[in-house]
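Re: export button greyed out
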Amino acid sequence: MATVLVVDDSRIIRNGLKNVLERLGHTIVGEAENGFDGVKLYKEVYPDVVTMDITMPAVSGIKNGMDAVKHIIEFDEFANIIMITAHGEQQKVMESIKNGAKGYILKPITRDKVRESMQRVGFDSDD
Amino acid sequence: MIKTTAGKLSTLILVISSIVLTISIILLFSASNKTQKKIYVDVTEQLQSFTEHKLKAKYWIGKTNAITLASNPLLQQAIKTEDRELAKKVLDNYLTYLTKHTKFKNIKIHIHTKDNHSFLRNWKPYKYGDDLTSFRKTVVYVNKHKEPITSFEIGRAGLSLRAVTPIIDENGEHLGSLEFIQGLNSISKAFEKEKKGSFLLLMNIMSRSDDIETFESKQAFQYKYLIYQKYIDKLFLESAKKINLENIFTNGHIFDDKYLYTYVNIEDFEGKKLGIALIGKPLTLVNYALEDAKHLIYLALGIIIFMAFAIAIFVIFASRRIIITPLETLQDGLNSFFAFLNKERRDVEKIDEDISAEFGKMSKLINTNINTVAQTLKQDEILVQQIKEKSQKIKQLLDNANQGFLYFDETMKVGGGQSSVTEEIFEQEIMGSNITHLLYPDDVDNQTYMEESLKDILTMDGLRQELMLSLLETNFVINGKSITVEYKILDNNSYMMILTDITEKIELDEKLKDEQQTLKMVIEVVITLEQFMEIKKDYLEFVANIENYKSLEKLSELRRYLHTFKGLFAQKEMLNIVKKLHSFEDVINNSIKQQTILDELKNTTTETMTQWLELDLDILTDILGDEYFENTNSISISKDRILLLCEKVKDNKEIVSEIKKLTYHNIEIFFRPYEKMVKQLATKLEKELYPLKVVSDEIYIQSKYEPFLKSLVHIFRNSVDHGIETAETREELGKDYKGQISCNIYQTKDNLHIDIADDGAGIDVEKIKQMAISKNLISENEAKNLDEKEIIMFIFEDAFSTALEVTDISGRGVGLASLLNELKTLNGNIDINNNFKKGIEFKFTLPLDMEN
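Workaround output, generated via the alternate export path:
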């Protein structure tokens, strides 16, 4: 069971992730709708896992999810960041992994994918 | 650099020996220096004490003789009577006797009166009466204190050792004093005789009395001194004249190349310094002792050097025997063992275990392991052989399995060892080529990107590598072949790539898909043969009359027909005609130029459109046989014939009703195809759906309802396509990830009710409103006055679509329009319960013919 910070500019995706994660027994400790807030919130709540959308609007110098990964890793090199990505974003995902992300979930988001990704960064789920 | 153990050991020993030697030599030389100093001091002390000893002897001799003579009664009488002749006689007798029987040759005796005047000098008897008070302190002292004294003093005859004693007669009357004077020649002679060295009495000029006889000046010694000795060692004097006396006074002794010099102070009885006795010893004699000591030291040094070298050589030889030889034995043993390990030798020998205790133990240990390793190796060899055989087999397998593999490292250069299939895939020699150039022959951007990624991945940890590998492109088209690749990382620094040629598989898959598609069509047609025949008939009728629709005014009607037929044929899985209809639709819907549309209409004749259908019909008849559509197992009676029958039996109501029922259908059968369609559509659109739930009363309907019931296809399509969200969106929204479409059919009094509901997204009324405004269907002001249902009804308008993307399934906006058209034909009504984001329900109400 992990504490999770969800960073995504789409409220629908955030809610969806939240539902899936909570049903899997994890706790959502924060939500952010852009990379800047995500990085800020990370430093406040220090979650076990972050889900990070790749494509988000630039806010206060943080251009996108990849950029946010860089900042979080700078702050905590052991951060568990899972990228949320769509088809055709492979290069961005690779860039994020180079920056320190530990996993990715290819949309559409399903319970199985989320469970597997959480498992990969070391957190078991319910059912 | 010396590398061997023996060399290092020898060097070490030599270094230690040298250090020991150096230290020894330094110690010995310092000892020898100390010895020299000590010997000089010793000799100095010997010389001085010998001198003092001799002087003391002379003191006592002088004193004894003086006292003896002074108590001679004859002499006393001669003084009382001032009889100098008598006194002289006494002294002469005494001296003659003394010189004859002793070594003392240079003795002078001087008698003084009690008032310090000279009474008699035995060596100058004619000279008497002179007053001695002024310069003879000893005489004055003795006459005054009436006690004997011995001291050096300078008299008229120069520096002499003088023993003075009072002369007192038997009645105690003081008569005068007697002086016994000795020279120091005898000491000088004694030095020479006893080989003690040389003795030279020097008088300080400053202390000399004025009337010292002039000859003495010839005896001047270094200006400050006069030599006051008759017996002189000439050689000693010659050397002594060159020395610096001041240095003697400072150091106690000095030496030049011939003598070691020292001195003894000559003082009078009051402690006044009168001169010195310079004494010396030839260095040859002094150094005799020193040479002895030095010889001893050199001998010791020699022994040490010899010992050091002897030990060094011994240790070197011993170490060779104790360490090097066993080590070499061990080395030889290990060499042969390693040669065996490296397969340069077939067998292995054990190491001699007797070489020495420790090495023996070591050898024993190694031997034990040699046995084990040798056995393991033999097993390994068998294993390796097996693996080789297996790899050979695998390679052969891969060579024959359309699967190739190759290796490359961080340089991206393909290494050797690839399979023959790999070369077939690339159709060229690939060894040494850059892998990214092979995969993307003309795409520099992708080459660069892939090269960077592949290099980066090698620097990452296992978890990241796995993630990154899963993101790499796996499908490539190489020389027109479809290739999928699989990446594996070997030893963390190179890649193995497995390439599979899936061209044939894709072709097969497509063929299989076609076949399946055909089969689906056949089954669909066979199951719903009746319906199919109906559609076919309708379509052929429509096509026969196609010229009637070939005007711009009739265009929307034509679109509706086309769209409906497209949907109907799609339901029957007749994909060839669906494709044709779709592209026709596409041209007349989306062309900007009217002329293009008109041309298309002109070219699309009854004949062409019939041919479209025949594409699929040919396939069907190929499979089912030419006669199928005429002679099926079921009894097929044309409807026209039934109607004719009814005409014939119209008087018998009961029969008519039953016969007519033949033309009636249970409404449910019209929905059965929808169950299947919904399922297929969901699969195609990747939507998760529960099976369509149709709940129906048993209602028989006339054929006039059929067009409407068929047009319901648009409701179902829209529901699956636009209504039901994707599974993940549903999850995000907290809905069941599977959607549900349900259909409820029931009868109330005179009405037939069909409620179709889904739990999908519902309709975004605001969006519809905005679209209606943007399509100029209404003004903004009008829009404000419309209620929700009125707005939703826009979706039933021609050319209105909420879908952003037009698919061949729905979204042209004509489907619902045709539905509404059919509904109106039957005087039906529609009611809509819209719940944005939760679902929508369409409630259709149709009047039922009372005939039912």
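Chain A has one domain: 3-48+64-111. The button fix ships in the next patch.
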